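[Meeting: bench + compute handoff]

Bench side (C.D.) handed over the final construct sequence. Compute side (W.E.) agreed to return the predicted structure before the next meeting so the bench team could plan truncations. Sequence as handed over:
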Amino acid sequence: MPAFTHIHWHHPDVWAILVGRGVGTLEANVESACETWLERAGYTVLELDFANGISPVISKLAQWLHWEQQFGYQLDPESRNLDALRDGFEFEDENLVLKLAHFEQAWSENVAWSRGFLSIVSEQSIRQLALGKRFFAILPFVAPSFLIGQCFEELCLSSPFRFPGPVA
């Protein structure tokens, strides 16, 4: 079943997933209205608050992702290992939104990690869309924000698809 049966460009989910490749921004003055809309549209919103830095968010992510059950060890809150985070970014929730509050703090603390984290969110958004589910992140901010216009991913042409057997 498709994730969207109609494309409504004025809906925040369509805008974040299709225009933002899984990451959308919104000004703080519409944050409450957006959360109300998301709730009515059947989304679960998981807030990740970066106000105190990246480490507390890593702890929350480890709980949400059931890290210890997946891998048999606790994820170190000081870990900045994006490859491990990418490997463990598995969840069952449908129609999920990550609210990345105070993301400017994360960006100021560690730009490379922040870019990598947004890339993971973007990858998961595409993966979930292919499965007929909706997943994306929103970054509320107070205007003006230095985040607007920042890049987090560069797209390249991939290796060619290879059929596993002879091509007929």
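W.E. noted at the follow-up: The chain has one domain: 24-141. C.D. will use this when planning the next construct.
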